[in-house]
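Request:
Um, any thoughts?
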Amino acid sequence: GTGVCATLRTAAGAITEPFDAVLFCGGRTSRLPELGFTTPPHGNLRLSPRTWVIGDARLGSLGQACIAMGDGLLAAAEVVELIRWD
């Protein structure tokens, strides 16, 4: 099946998290089309129920990830890699 894996760079180092699917796609992350994602002009990319990617891809960065747990913000990270497979 389709899957998504993101590598997030946090203050504590890089972590890689797999996700079942992209649930919501938005934002302006310029490398997403080459990965097969379609992005509206505005919004964000939701990787999972608790992870969102916001912002633009600049200087090789895919954007910023906000990892939410419940209603609180657990961590903020830079998304350095996003891999999709079918």
